[in-house]
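Task: encode each sequence below as structure tokens.

Item 1
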Amino acid sequence: MNSGKNKKYSKNQLLWAGLLFDLIGMTSFVFPPIDIIWAPLSAFLMIKMYKGDVGKIAGLISFVEEIVPGLDFFPSFTLTWLYVHIWKKK
């Protein structure tokens, strides 16, 4: 099983990108049709940011979270970063 760490990007780059992507996802509260484009894009980005099983599972969660109305408050990118870099180490 792959740890999910991405050697192409630093830990800080992944965090800042994740925060930005979570903010983009939350904009659908103001403009809901953005989810039609953002849901598959967020899944793709998550898979690229976090390799292996972590990225695949997080990508699926991100897609569902964005496509289902009312779940956009869930910061999937930030929580995935916390899982990979903080919680999983313990």
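Item 2
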Amino acid sequence: MSDWKPIIGLEVHAELLTRSKMFSPCPVVDSVEAEPNTAVDPVSLGLPGTLPVINERAVEFGLMVALALNCHIPRFNQFARKNYFYPDLPKGYQISQYDRPLAVNGYLDVEVTPEDGEPYLKRVRIRRAHLEEDTGKLTHMNGDSLVDYNRSGVPLLEIVTEPDIHSADEAEAYARALRAILQYLGVNNGDMSKGVLRIEPNISVMHRDDTDYRTRTEVKNLNSIRSLYRSIQYEINRQIALWESGEGVKQATLGWDEARQRIVVQRYKERADEYRYFPEPDLPVLEITPEWVERVRAQLPELPDAKRRRLMEVFGLSAYDARVLVMDQAVAQFYEAAVAAGANPKSAANWLVGSLFSLMNREGVEREAIAAIRIQPAQFAALVKLVDGGTLNRGTAAVVLEEMWQTGADPAQIVAEKGLAQVSDADAVAAAVAGVLAANEAMVRDYLAGKEKLFGALMGQCMAALKGKGNPQVVSEVLRRQLEARRGG
């Protein structure tokens, strides 16, 4: 692997959250939930005699993304016909943009945190961002293909990077950062499971002796960042093995088989000139004036980097916690709602990034789905306040959090029903500690003889005697006091 360097560029296809389609007033619907072929019109069905009209809101959404990605916005851009013939494209071509896209030459700075190395900042250059219409959706069953045209004509923004990405870690960091920006802008909800955000990596490898790029492949329509990471890792290893065996890599379109965790070849890749692009004759050249750009800029909300800085400055969070919290808009909203409900900002961040994320990982719940879990932000805040107020220690709080996860019950109710309130009463703690010391005379003698590491074992037995509900600070103080009393005796 040290002799090889991965070369990766990403194409991200983001459906835009407009009310109507890219070139017609036909409404946009949830293409997963809606009944098939109920949101169609003559334009999206490609019927003869129909004419497209540009959706102004889709253009503004594209401009918002372009500004957030530090892109240059040319004054003039133009739509083009991209010709190919599939059942999901009834008119035989897609209206897209080719040599005159909406935006060019941008960049996105992302923090990469590899599993086996130190975090570092990575700049990924954006080659272009262009508008187009989405295709219909095919469902293959028993050798037949069913077509749903609800998605046909939905506004789509394609964002293409330069081949600046050199690992699956960098690809993941870029994808997460870009998805967060799209969510914060309100132009895409980031739900990859429904196909509203699709990622396609172009992958090749270079040997250390190479002076030019080798053949690349493209993995199509990945519907999760986890699949993006795994498919890139797999394809890098596959290509290296092919080159080292002398077989070589053929340019191809690939798919990712999630069930078998492997790459599958779908077809050999077409060249761009096979699409026979030419200017769309039914649409005018679009002029983006500086005044229009500035009106759009004024609409930009607080973006992830700005929110991260604010959380650090206002709440005193660490750079790591702030970055993790803003990575998914739903997580940031959950956190800020918990703080608004009275949770200490630092404590809430610690419990969210640590304990709650661990539960979500264990249950296979993606972070962007945090709004769907049973625990509400106000309940989470109540748990944090019980810990900070001394009612619960961390151990019993973890038990309460688990119960909240399973049932959605309020933490105070769980504490009352299960008798989990922390024991801080000095007399109760002293009695429990005295009992532990009496039952472990040999351990006490060894501790007093200099084996101070035994304090932790004695502390653990004291906490067990208090059924995990002891206040650790009080237990520790009483234990030390009783041990020193024995030393003096």
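Check on item 2: Residues 304-418 form one domain. The two ends are 66 Å apart (CA to CA).
End of task.
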